[in-house]
Amino acid sequence: MTVKLSTARERPPLKKAEKTGRDSVEVASDDHEDAFHFGTRLRAFRKARGWSLERAADAVGVPGSTLSRIENRKMSPTLDLIQKIVRAMDLHPYDILGRDRAKANAGSVSVTRKGHEEYTELPNILYAPLHPDSEASGIRPIIVTLFARSVQEYGGLTAHAGDEFLYVLTGSVELHLENREVERLNAGDSILFDSHIPHAYVSAGEAQAKLLIVASTIDAPFHSLPV
Fold first, then answer.
1. β-sheet bridge partners, residue 157
2. Cα separation of 99 and 77, whole Å?
3. Contact 173, 157 (CB under 8 A)
4. Alpha-carbon span 215 to 6, nearest angstrom
């Protein structure tokens, strides 16, 4: 039996970003470790492929200046742009959002201790994939600290294969589902839905919204829809 432990140090709170465009948001400079930042991982994967900034930008379909600002922590991508990057660079979402993956062996056990999660900054979201090394299970548990106050700030409606379970740990959240009424959920509430339905999460209360999301088959192709 193989046991894997997450060993990253606890992540400081994310600063709320300011919206500047559909594909990106400006982010304030801070003293957080580079290892937590999306741009650092993006640069590492780009260089590992031997791609220039221009080649990567062409593949993703954005100006080179956009990727440069992301890599240098001057801009954070929306979920829509992250999905474009994942597809263009032939990555698994957890490659770019979490630590390096190692396929779990049959009978393996993965443990993440409190305060040892690995975090990634997204626009208006602090994203902590739990057990990213347990790929074989087909289950993707994620802790999300949500700052988005609108569907636009969240990055638009997104959809993917499988099902999605949401449990509200603290605060309140509005779940926007395409062509359906908005579901408001408070601490202790939960919902299970078909994640083929385009959806977005929005913080809805004064208290900080913190969520446990469990998604299945998150490695299937994503489709992002404009608001």
1. 225
2. 18
3. no
4. 20
Task: State the Cα angle at 99 between 94 and 100, rounded to 5°.
Answer: 85
Q: What is the pLDDT of residues 97-156, one digit of tens each?
A: 655 455 445 567 788 888 777 777 776 888 888 876 665 567 788 899 999 999 988 878
Q: What is the pLDDT of residues 56-70, one digit of tens each?
A: 999 999 999 999 988
Q: What is the 3-state secondary structure (H, E, C) of the chain?
A: CCEEEECCCCCCCCCCCEECCCCEEECCCCCCCHHHCHHHHHHHHHHHCCCCHHHHHHHHCCCHHHHHHHHCCCEEECHHHHHHHHHHCCCCHHHHHCCCCCCCCCCCEEEECCCCCCCEEECCEEEEECCCCCHHHCEEEEEEEECCCCHHHHCCEEEECCEEEEEEEECEEEEEECCCCCEEEECCCEEEEECCCCEEEEECCCCCEEEEEEEECCCCCEEEECC
Q: And the tokens for 68?
A: 């440069």
Instruction: Provide the whole-model pTM.
Output: 0.63
Instruction: Look up residue 122 and give its two tokens.
Output: 């997204």
> Six-digit token pair at 216?
């299945």
| Amino acid sitting at position 83 | Q
Angle of CA points 152, 217, 185, to nearest 5°: 45
Domains of the chain (ranges; CATH) run 114-225 (2.60.120.10)
